[in-house]
């Protein structure tokens, strides 16, 4: 056999693919002809969409004299009340925030007369939250506007599109904590004091 000629055994093996150092993603399904340009555009559009949704929430909240956090808690309470009693932890889970943040917003909303809170009948450490008539009135005032906004935002999409997007967004929400942790660890390792 000639020297350096591949054998049957070496022909079957393929060398591990090397990731180009300038790629921001290595998952092959997101590379187009070995490039991540389409993926980068998608991420930029995603950040723009998220920023737009945050701005929309602030504008809606401001229109009824609430902070974005208070508005989010009112909406979450409204949504969750349709399923049963509502506690701080359920609101926190719905909004993907810490329970302490919800507790602070609930306190403000109770002072504004938009929510009531009462002790949980079976858990002395917990409270139940409920919209007051004033809270329901704000939502009744906003509902026609929300309907118009949502109709515009989601027009042209099928329920199956929304289901796929919902799974994707849920994954991002669940995974973002780990991604933030990775970014913070990188920052900590790369500060001038860490390199000494």
As for the CATH topology of the domain at 53-143, it is Arc Repressor Mutant, subunit A
| Assembly of the depicted chains | single chain
What separation lies between the terminal Cα atoms?
Answer: 55 Å
The Cα radius of gyration reads 25 Å
Largest sheet, if any?
Answer: 3 strands, antiparallel
Order of helices and strands: HHHEHHEEHH
Strand line-up in the sheet with most strands: 1-3-2
Given as residue ranges, the uncertain stretches (5+ residues, pLDDT < 50) are 8-16
**How large is the share of residues in beta strands?**
5-15%
Mean pLDDT: 88
The helix tally amounts to: 7
According to CATH, the homologous superfamily of the domain at 53-143 is: Winged helix-like DNA-binding domain superfamily/Winged helix DNA-binding domain
Give the overall shape.
Answer: globular
Secondary-structure class: mainly alpha
Looking at the overall shape, the CATH architecture of the domain at 53-143 is Orthogonal Bundle
InterPro entries: HTH_MarR-typ, MarR/SlyA-like, WH-like_DNA-bd_sf, WH_DNA-bd_sf
GO biological process, one term: response to stress
GO molecular function, one term: DNA-binding transcription factor activity
Protein name: MarR family transcriptional regulator
């Amino acid at each position: 056999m000639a020297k350096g000629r591949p054998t049957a055994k070496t022909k079957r093996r393929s060398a591990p693919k090397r990731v180009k150092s300038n790629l921001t993603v290595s998952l092959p399904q997101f590379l187009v002809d070995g490039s991540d340009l389409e993926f980068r555009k998608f991420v930029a559009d995603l950040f723009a969409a998220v920023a737009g949704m945050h701005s929309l929430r602030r504008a809606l909240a401001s229109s009824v004299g609430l902070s974005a956090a208070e508005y989010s808690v009112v909406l979450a309470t409204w949504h969750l009340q349709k399923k049963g009693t509502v506690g701080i932890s359920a609101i926190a889970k719905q909004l993907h925030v810490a329970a302490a943040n919800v507790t602070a917003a609930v306190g403000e909303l109770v002072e504004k007369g938009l929510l009531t809170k009462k002790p949980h009948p079976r858990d002395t450490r917990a409270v139940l939250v409920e919209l007051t008539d004033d809270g329901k009135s704000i939502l009744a005032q906003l509902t026609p506007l929300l309907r118009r906004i949502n109709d515009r935002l989601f027009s042209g999409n099928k329920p199956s599109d929304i289901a796929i997007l919902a799974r994707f967004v849920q994954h991002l929400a669940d995974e973002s904590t780990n991604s933030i942790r990775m970014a913070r660890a990188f920052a900590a390792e790369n500060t001038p004091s860490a390199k000494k």
